[in-house]
Amino acid sequence: MTNRLAEAKSLYLRKHAENPIDWWPWCDEALATARAQNKPIFLSIGYSSCHWCTVMEGEAFSDIAIADYMNANYLPIKVDREERPDLDSIYMQALQMMSGQGGWPLNIFLSPEDLVPFYAGTYFPVDPRYGRPGFLQVLQALRRYYDTEKADLQQRKALIVESLLTSAVLQDGTTDELEDHELLRQGWETSTGIITPSQSGNSFPMIPYTELALRGTRFNFESRYDGKQVCTQRGLDLALGGIYDHVGGGFHRYTVDPTWTVPHFEKMLYDNGQIVEYLASLWSAGVQEPAFERAIAGTVQWLKREMTAPEGYFYASQDADSFTQATAVEPEEGAFYVWSYSELQQLLTPEELTELQQQFTVTSNGNFEGRNVLQRRNSGKLSATLETSLNKLFTARYGVSSDSLETFPPARNNQEAKTTNWSGRIPSVTDTKMIVAWNSLMISGLAKAAGVFQQPLYLELAARAANFILENQFVDGRFQRLNYQGEPSVLAQSEDYALFIKALLDLHQASLARNENQSSQTQHSPLSTHHSLWLENAIAIQDQFNEFLWSVELGGYNNTSRDSSQDLIVRERSYADNATPSANGIAIANLVRLALLTDNLDYLDLAELGLKAFKSVMHRAPQACPSLFTALDWYRNSTLIRSTTEQINSLIPKFLPAAVFAITSDLPEGSVGLVCQGLKCLAPAESVEHLWQQVEKSQNRALD
Fold first, then answer.
1. Contact criterion met (CB below 8 Å) for 6 and 21
2. Helices (DSSP H) in 149-202: which residue ranges?
3. Could you tell me which residues come within 8 angstroms of residue 9 by beta carbon, excluding any fewer than 6 positions away?
4. Which of 37, 518, 546, 603 pairs as cysteine with 594 (C-beta 3.0–4.6 A)?
């Protein structure tokens, strides 16, 4: 017997289809039913690859007594946060206000008449444990509270609404504002401190912070931090650590320790796109560590092999858990990725195992539940022997060697995972939905790496994904966020607009030189899209972004379109960076880039209004918004380089974080390029050395 979620497109929702709970999806009918029956709403938000979401689905949400009470006393609604990040953002903020912490699963209780929350939590066990009450006790206590404490309920809700509205408006409480260059220094120092190695806690990539820290190294700010060293160490932690899958490529979500050793094993597309872009930027900044190039190449191979749909777009994620055998009832965390010592002894020669132990964290006792997560001990290039050993492990995992496995089909659900005749291990389930924002992060990473390493494959993969979005993600002219097996759905949100516009601009820049030199044999490949078309599409989508999401009253972009916000208790403007960069930080930087490339100063006006809208939070909480500081850097140090294809081709691999290129054949006689700083142009550069001097100086105007 299944519930309403059996018909859902979302893999996460369908995972709850056999629960005895009478789940509803978030929809007008569900909200109206709750009001008509005067039932408080139990809203549960999570995502497919969330480990504790999976645990709660198999425990509390599968318990008959809990389900009976829930169905009689609440209107239960399930939401996939990857489908509705706007709902997730609002109610996550409420959870943090109530408990001081956040996380998923996000379980929150709402009044049906106004959708205002009055209680929230994360994981609830069936029975009391871990210092948490049993879930049935929570449900019973909250229903009594809802029925008998109306005055307190209203007061509690009023405080929450007031806090949410105040947060959304971002009223300026600063009186002594810093100059822009000092504000930028403060933002850089804060982000650099945040990514400085710690001796405790989990280790997250935190790429919006690393990106700001790296771009700030060119200013030589006075600081207690050695910014270049901190940024290099973050790159080494990522490329050498257990967070990277040294056998199959791709990065896991985070590690559960401060040593970057044991990951939480899910692989998210958005992490991988950002990390590829960061490592490529680090390389372009002069840190040319072979492990960075290897990690990027391995991640692209994983992406091409396991995460790319036949149509060219990229899948969303892979679960942390997998089955060890087809008869297993529950999957095990990390089973697809870890190695017992006895396995390694069987697969490798004694000499190979000895070298593996010398270069990786391999012991007879293991470092994860008796098994081994591979973490490199040293930087540098791996030996041919080690590469051979790692390929043997690849063959054991996948059933075929890496050089002969073009495509590894996804297991779309647990049933598929257990019933398919895999040649190697049973893989983790892959969530195959297409999310515009996450695809965009990967496109940007590939475009950056294509320019830095001069790899046509990277650009081709990026172009195919971008073309899929351009050709399939518009319904009646409106941009759509998701695609499920060819069906676009859900109006795009601010992060989709901002990140896809950035991706198009990144493609435009990376493809400048290649398009001019393209041979006749490549005219029908995705690369044959002329670079000007990437820019034209960016402009068109920016127009729609401005029309439907720009906040005329407050400045900046709302998370949702003005005609699709009826079911939200507040309209938020995303400025805080989390695992992904904030929509407004990216959007403001895009506006500056568009102004440079089009000479349309309306974009620059909007960028200035956007920065003013968030200036107070940049002063008050620089730790919250590194992407806004990146946007400020673009605004203050924006540089346009007009030159020939040949010169641009030589500059694209270099670290120029606030510059854009434009090809021109109409240069003054005797010059090799023109450098423009914001609204003024410098004297024509008469030599390559002169051009480079102008560019470097223009990129460092923050302290002028």
1. no
2. 150-169, 180-195
3. 433, 482, 484, 487, 489
4. 603
Alpha-carbon distance of 700 to 658, in angstroms, equals 9
Q: The tokens 């291990």 sit on which residue?
A: 425
Q: Are 633 and 658 in contact (CB under 8 A)?
A: yes
- Asked if omega into 105 is within 30° of 0 (cis), the reply is yes
User: H or E element: which one contains 145?
Assistant: helix 135-148
CA 568 to chain centre: 23
Pick from 48-62, 105-119, 230-244, 658-672 the range whose average pLDDT is largest: 230-244
Q: How confident is the model at residue 529 (pLDDT cuts 50, 70, 90)?
A: low
Residue 527 has a pLDDT of: 47
Q: What are phi and psi of 643, to 5 degrees?
A: -160, -175
- Please give the mean pLDDT across all residues of the chain: 92
CB count in 10 Å sphere of residue 552: 7
Task: Report how far residue 262's alpha carbon sits from residue 461's, in angstroms, rounded to the nearest whole number.
Answer: 30
In the predicted model, is pLDDT for residue 123 greater than 80?
yes
pLDDT one-digit tens code per residue, 365-416: 999 999 999 999 999 999 999 999 999 999 999 999 999 999 999 999 999 9
**Beta carbons within 8 Å of 113's beta carbon, 6+ residues apart:** 35
408, 427 in Cβ contact below 8 A?
A: yes
DSSP state of 129: B
Q: What are phi and psi of 23, to 5 degrees?
A: -65, 145
Distances (CA, A) of 237 to 203, 231, 232, 511: 9, 10, 9, 31
Residues 34-45, mean pLDDT to the nearest whole number: 96
What values do phi and psi take at 42, rounded to 5? -100, 110
Cβ pair 400, 409 in contact under 8 A = no
